[in-house]
Amino acid sequence: MATQESKPKIGESEKITINLGLIDLGQIDLLVQEGFYSNRTDLIRTAIRNQLGTHAEVVRQTVARRSLVLGMQHYSRADLEAIQAAGQRLQIQVLGLASIGSDVSVELALATIESIFVLGALHASTVVKTALAGRIH
């Protein structure tokens, strides 16, 4: 019986922590209280999106220059087995989310993944991440 692996969804998010000065935080709370934003997170997400929009062309050019995959890139056990059978090795370069299947063994990952560069998040089992630690940049 085949099982379907749970893959991360594009809409998933990562939690970050930021430190703000009390005056900045107070101004955010004032804008929330006045109804401009539904909560602090809404304001912060909007501000980040606005800044990313301002710099969108630089991001686009850099993604192209560095040959980064933009978005989500998932590597299943079958993908890595095919790469291994072809005698190839991966240089994973992702801006967004890179994920390695939970059924990928440490041995398979070490045999097929030469390097990992992720701007965003890398989802993989703890043992695979630990084994590849020296190849993650």
From TrEMBL:
InterPro entries, A to Z: RHH_8, Ribbon_hlx_hlx
Superkingdom of source: Bacteria
Any one GO BP annotation for this protein: regulation of DNA-templated transcription
PANTHER family tied to this protein: BLL4998 PROTEIN
Name of the protein described by the UniProt record: Transcriptional regulator
